[in-house]
Amino acid sequence: MTEAPIKGPASYFPSIEKKYGRPIAEWKETIRARYPGKHMELVALLKDEHGMGHGHANALVAHTLAEDGLK
Fold first, then answer.
1. How far is CA 43 from CA 17, 21, 32, 52, in A?
2. pLDDT tens-place string over residues 29-49
3. Is residue 16 within 8 Å of residue 56, measured between CB atoms?
4. Which listed residue, 26, 51, 55, 59, has the most CB atoms within 10 A of its CB?
5. 65: how many CB neighbours lie within 10 A of its CB?
6. How does DSSP classify residue 6?
7. Residue 15 in this model has a pLDDT that exceeds 60
8. Residues 38 and 54 sit within 8 Å (Cβ to Cβ)
9. In whole angstroms, how far apart are CA 46 and each of 3, 4, 5, 39, 49?
10. Are 46 and 31 in contact (CB under 8 A)?
């Protein structure tokens, strides 16, 4: 049986880890350390302080907020 392809924000995770050299768990810790920031504030954090592209930052924030029931 073949696994279903990953969809949504998590589909970015392999390229985020490869490009920025940190595991997704560390990025999620970085985001959670800035709670209760709003979605776009957290995206800006990743872009401004870590040089992350908008799509990658948005995917990480969206997934983390949804995982924590804050979406």
1. 17, 18, 12, 9
2. 999 999 999 999 999 999 999
3. yes
4. 59
5. 19
6. P
7. yes
8. no
9. 31, 29, 26, 11, 6
10. yes
Residues in the chain: 71
Per-residue HEC secondary structure of 31-49 comes to HHCCCCCCHHHHHHHHHHH
Say how far apart CA 56 and CA 47 lie, in whole Å: 9
Q: Which residue has the higher pLDDT, 20 or 9?
A: 20
The one-letter amino acid code at 43 reads: V
Most confident of 1-5, 9-13, 60-64: 60-64
pTM equals: 0.90
